[in-house]
């Protein structure tokens, strides 16, 4: 894409390590994408004297394309998540040999969550074993959308080399010069194709008829056009495809074909991006959170959203309309990525949703409540940067030098903003929809080489965590050991390489440890404790009563209930005796502050269990605060309340531990293993007997009940051209040598190092993907084995 748009003068190669977007040394050494990279280019490329009329097709008008190349490995799912959050459209690249893989389904589901319009490009059709027909049907069965085949592959003579594609939209054939750079394309009309390859012409007519039939089922406007004319114009089909995918539901999936290694099919794909995918103005209104209100950003900017909250009532004397407040917002942007660049310092990638971020503008961070100045603005070209004066709405750019901004922070530009308080309330708390961070499950110990290096290692880890929020660091209170957690083995391996090689940290990473949890097996009694001691030179005194039980999904929630880290915390504050039903608390200690203080103390107590110092999970804590006996006037502060709650919960945990009612829990993963039919038996036996796993289903794309329940697709009605080397079974995927899937739940401990074992079982053909499912209680043999490991291991238990 970059070569044909004129951005670069050569075509990069993954095998040679010469790609533009995979520029990290680790990416080039491994041949994979580790971090997402942004590039901005124009398609069609700018030419001197180039003009286009208003009636020209979209693909004839030059568009600015912000391309983000995302990783495909499961360990770097967060890179995909934060990129999808700010994208307007996506191109899903499928391997024509492997088809729809397990990770493809996971990323596709993430795109469904954000309603991203997308098209599919079936790549690597030049390789032996490429099966376009099978891949198209897998798109229908596994991605739960109707495949609209817009291009079909062209093999010379029906079974020769892959030389081009047939365009079902424009009814023509495109043939690329063998061994060329892909710029020489021969366009053959249907009349020329009748003499050159009549069999392919016949198949192309079938593809066109199937495409129109599919679109008529989803688009009434095209159906009416089809009834009124003898032959549909290509533009009507393009407009129909665009209407069908703009909502981002994925019900209809346009499919294109090519082989990027042979430089085939890339330019038509770029035309499809211009023709089908939306521009920023066509996307749904971004969702915002303003205080307790949820609304669209355009509702706020147009003045339709009322700002009449308690925080802004005092402003009504000076400003009579909320529109006057909102009109001063110059820009609203979301920070979706932070990178530490060796030459330019900290780079914050932003997507601007309204207005324009200008150089030297003061930006208010609504999450951290700090003001920072955008001293330099860049347009990123992978590892290179171009200085720009502003970043306008709909664009992706980079701000250099921000000290505090993190992934998911909302930045707004407001003239004359107070650096400490920001814009007037409630605009100072305006937030765009945040980016969800998946919880980590793999742990490894970080050991500085000396005490003098400990501070330096901690600072470097903070830089890594700011770059990648899916990494977590915590410190064991007893041993003082730093523990780094992430999404998988490769994820932590890359973090270790960056820590040692890029940042030159003098530290060693230990073996990967599993994050276990503790749980309460039986209800405890109530424990009331009074905290009475000085806090920062000021006397503090407060009381609290706590009890703990197993979590009950059907329990009736108390007056104030929060769910945090897999636990439920309920707070009950006794009402006053005056009959008004409200707690008798002073005005300087409102109920909300009491709730927050008690919750904070409980969370601190649950962070470390009494048995092996693992966090508590699946526990229900009930806190009771009676102002009549637990409140001690001015001595009762929020800090004292938090300490009282922590002591009460810890007392309840000690009681449970003394009665042997504290159990251990281990993380259990959802695992989808893809293997050949011949290896299926070995995989199932190994999963069930050797790894204590629970096999949930065995099947192919045609018998997955969960998918069929979501969307029933008649596989026989899906059109796809026959593969030249397909078997006579008609695409049946249950025979020997065909791909099968094993879906199972397996303890995470048994999955460490599983990839090597899986490859040995399947002759290198098996792959798997796993995601966190839940924590499951340990009992019997697995609990005894874990206790034995804790007793004999020299590594601290957490």
From TrEMBL:
Residues binding GTP: 69-73, 123-126
Q: Which InterPro entries match?
A: EF-G-like_DII, EFG2, EFG_II, EFG_III, EFG_III/V, EFG_V, EFG_V-like, G_TR_CS
Q: Name one GO cellular component term.
A: mitochondrial matrix
Q: Tell me the ranges covered by the Tr-type G domain, including all copies.
A: 1-281
Q: Residues annotated as region Disordered?
A: 43-63
State the compartments where it is located. Mitochondrion
| Keyword terms, alphabetized | GTP-binding, Mitochondrion, Nucleotide-binding, Protein biosynthesis
Task: Give the family, as the similarity comment puts it.
Answer: Belongs to the TRAFAC class translation factor GTPase superfamily. Classic translation factor GTPase family. EF-G/EF-2 subfamily.
Name recorded for this polypeptide: Ribosome-releasing factor 2, mitochondrial
Organism encoding this protein: Mollisia scopiformis (Conifer needle endophyte fungus)
């Amino acid at each position: 894409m970059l070569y044909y748009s004129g951005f670069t003068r050569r075509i990069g190669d993954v095998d040679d390590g010469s790609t533009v977007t995979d520029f990290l040394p680790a990416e080039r050494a491994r041949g994979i994408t580790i971090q997402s990279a942004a590039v901005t280019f124009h398609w069609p490329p700018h030419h001197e004297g180039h003009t286009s009329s208003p009636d020209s097709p979209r693909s004839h008008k030059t568009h600015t394309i912000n391309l983000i190349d995302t990783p495909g490995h499961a360990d770097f799912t967060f890179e995909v998540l934060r990129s999808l959050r700010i994208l307007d459209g996506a191109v899903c690249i499928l391997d024509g040999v492997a088809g729809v893989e397990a990770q493809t389904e996971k990323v596709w589901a993430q795109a469904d969550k954000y309603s991203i319009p997308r098209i599919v490009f079936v790549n690597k059709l030049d390789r032996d074993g490429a099966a376009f027909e099978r891949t198209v049907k897998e798109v229908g069965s596994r991605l739960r959308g109707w495949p609209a085949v817009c291009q079909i592959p062209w093999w010379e003579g029906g079974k020769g080399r892959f030389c081009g594609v047939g365009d079902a939209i424009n009814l023509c054939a495109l043939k690329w010069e063998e061994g060329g750079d892909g710029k020489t394309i021969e366009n053959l009309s249907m009349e020329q194709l009748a003499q050159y390859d009549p069999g392919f012409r016949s198949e192309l007519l079938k593809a066109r008829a199937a495409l129109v039939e599919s679109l008529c089922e989803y688009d009434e406007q095209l159906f009416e056009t089809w009834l009124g004319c003898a032959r549909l114009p290509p533009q009507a089909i393009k407009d129909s495809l665009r209407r069908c995918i703009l909502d981002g539901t994925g019900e209809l999936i346009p499919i294109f074909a090519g082989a990027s290694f042979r430089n085939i099919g890339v330019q038509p794909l770029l035309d499809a991006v211009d023709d089908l995918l939306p521009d920023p103005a066509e996307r749904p209104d971004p969702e915002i959170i303003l205080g307790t209100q949820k609304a669209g950003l355009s509702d706020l900017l147009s003045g339709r959203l009322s700002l009449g909250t308690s925080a802004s009532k005092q402003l009504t004397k000076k400003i009579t309309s909320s529109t006057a407040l909102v009109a001063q917002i110059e820009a609203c942007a979301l920070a979706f990525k932070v990178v530490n660049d060796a030459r330019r310092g900290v780079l914050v990638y932003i997507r601007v949703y309204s207005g324009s971020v200008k150089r030297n503008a003061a930006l208010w961070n609504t999450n951290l409540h700090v003001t920072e100045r955008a001293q330099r603005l860049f347009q990123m070209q992978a590892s290179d940067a171009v200085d720009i004066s502003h970043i306008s709405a709909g664009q992706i750019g980079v701000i250099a030098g921000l000290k505090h901004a993190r992934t998911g922070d909302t930045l707004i530009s407001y003239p004359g903003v107070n650096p400490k308080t920001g814009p007037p309330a409630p605009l100072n708390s305006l937030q765009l929809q945040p980016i969800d961070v998946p919880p980590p499950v793999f742990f490894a110990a970080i050991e500085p080489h000396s005490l003098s290096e400990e501070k330096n290692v901690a600072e470097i880890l903070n830089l890594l965590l700011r770059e990648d929020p899916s990494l977590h660091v915590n410190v064991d209170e007893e041993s003082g050991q730093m523990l780094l957690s992430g999404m998988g083995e490769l994820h932590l391996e890359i973090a270790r390489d960056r820590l040692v090689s890029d940042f030159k940290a003098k530290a060693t990473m230990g073996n990967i440890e599993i994050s276990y949890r503790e749980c309460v097996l039986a209800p405890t009694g109530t424990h009331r404790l009074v905290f009475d001691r000085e806090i920062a030179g000021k006397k503090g005194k407060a009381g609290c009563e706590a009890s703990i039980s197993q979590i009950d999904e059907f329990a009736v929630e108390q007056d104030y209930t929060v769910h945090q880290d897999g636990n439920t915390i309920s707070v009950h504050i006794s009402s006053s005796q005056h009959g008004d039903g409200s707690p008798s608390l002073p005005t300087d200690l409102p109920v909300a502050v009491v709730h927050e203080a008690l919750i904070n103390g409980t969370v601190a107590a649950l962070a470390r269990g009494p048995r092996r110092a693992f966090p508590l999970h699946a526990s229900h804590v009930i806190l009771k605060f009676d102002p009549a006996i637990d409140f001690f006037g001015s001595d009762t502060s929020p800090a004292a309340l938090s300490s009282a709650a922590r002591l009460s919960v810890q007392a309840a945990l000690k009681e449970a531990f003394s009665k042997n009612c504290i159990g251990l829990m281990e993380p259990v993963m959802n695992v989808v293993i893809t293997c050949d039919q011949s290896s299926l038996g070995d995989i199932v036996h190994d999963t069930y007997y050797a790894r204590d796993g629970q096999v949930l289903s065995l099947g192919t794309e045609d018998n997955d009940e969960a998918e069929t329940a979501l969307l029933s697709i008649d596989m026989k009605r899906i059109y796809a051209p026959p593969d030249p080397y397909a078997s006579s079974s008609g695409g049946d995927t249950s025979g020997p040598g065909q791909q099968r899937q094993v879906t199972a739940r397996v303890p995470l401990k048994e999955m460490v190092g599983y990839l090597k074992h899986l490859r040995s079982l399947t002759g290198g053909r098996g792959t798997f993907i796993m995601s966190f499912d839940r924590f499951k209680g340990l009992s019997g043999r697995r609990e005894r084995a874990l206790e034995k490991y804790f007793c004999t291991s020299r590594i601290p238990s957490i």
